[in-house]
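Exercise 7.
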Amino acid sequence: MYRLYLWLLLSLLVTHPLVAQKSIKIAGGRAPAGIERRLALVVGNKNYNRTDARLTNPINDANDMANALELLGFEVILKTDLNRVDFEQAVDQFGERLKHYDVGLFYYSGHGLQAQGENYLVPVDAVIRSEPQIRYHCMDLGRVLAAMEGSNASTNIVLLDACRNNPYKKSWSKGGLAEGLTIPRNPPGTIVVFATSENSVADDNTGERNGLFTAKLLKNIRQPNRSLSQILAETRRGVYTRSNKQQVPADYNKLMGDFVFVIQDKGKNDTRTADQPFGPAMVYVRGGSFPMGSEEGETDEKPVHQVTVSAFLMGKYEVTVAEFEQFIEATRYQTDAEKEGHSYTWNGKDWKKMVGVNWRCDAEGNVRPRSDQNHPVLHVSWNDAVAYCEWLSRRTGKRYRLPTEAEWEYAAGNGSAHTKFSWGDMEPSGLIQSNIADRSAKGLLSWANENINDGYRYTAPVGSYAPNRFGLYDMTGNVHEWCQDLYSDTYYSNYSSASGNNPTGPVSGSCRVLRGGCWNSIPQHCRSTDRGCENPAIRHDRVGFRVVSPIQ
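Solution. The predicted structure, written as tokens, is:
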């Protein structure tokens, strides 16, 4: 943004919880249901080392943009006040993660400049005393574009709220070397959007919360069924008018089509806020083949056999208490625990039948406060999970169900990679990777691993740990998850290769499959291939579920 004053060129020339706008409304729309996997890196540089170089709004801009993008279905990496080393590291890590996503977005708010035809974003520790030093002290925009181009994302969006002017041309003996951001050489499939035109400044909008460009963009980005080109046109008009025709955003578009942030179903008048969407967030899981089972596992995991599953949508998180409450309030459904008047909890020695415990309760049997409704719902039977899916299908007009055992293992093991755990093949370590039996459960679980501390004695709020490569959270640990299939311990040994496409399990049996391990499980029982089962009416403090939706 942001004027780089003469002294800046001569002497300076030359970081999840989201904190702002927690209830951005999407007028009559909804965030897309996860058909595309979306990842964004958001950077705001405000507090430059030179106090008189500091800006007003970049951190507000970054916080608000990160919040908006998260509500629009993006996984968001938020960084503020980055020095050069951290800036480069953040971009490189973003590029690596983006290999597992379909849409990439990079947003930057802060100082920007241009030298010898290249664009640079200025880290907060930049100290440049001569023009040749610029490339060594600043972030080359080309590095961002290369990171995005090197990923598998088919759509890449770059949004830059930074100046593009040249107020210092006469100060250089050889002429305009610091001309702000210039025309980028963006690769196919990428659009680069600037807050202003060439050789112009971008208004930091002092006295307001956001820079002028970001303020208008935030307003338009949440409008349903508008393409990116429409959003940018409306933003351009708003900035142009508000700046008294002094600032005109510009874009350089090489997308292979257009992009829509928010989808609204035609004929429906849905006015909920984006941070309270109806139905679970979904992630697209590409279909593929994988070796189901493990020769190193239990008897019922053998023999390993080749399976192919079609693409499907899967719940990004385990179904939460808040989401299950929507179902109960809409249908007045009574769960098996409510009908029979009890559920089961672990008291440190054995399972205890607890009267009055149901889906509203935590693992100890206490009714959860509102602040804990982002935990996975417990004390629900397979019957209850199926009833939820049937209601959700009726409510949305889309088909929801529990995952098949094959779909679950494929998703948990990162597809064809078929990893041992959601994060890979390494055993759990001191790093916080998932919620399993750990030091926090010492005294409750005699088998707890004291070398690990995930921070939660019982369940953790969904999404507390890093997602797997598909963008799915808590596929290892937290709660066991119901699957659609009936269970048979000889199913694999009797498996026929003719059933290798989208298998749905045995045709008979009395129990239903459980997968994934939980807060009281040892690592062996949290593996992607580990199989469990329960009677479909059973419920207790370590079982929940997530949903899938077939691609239609």
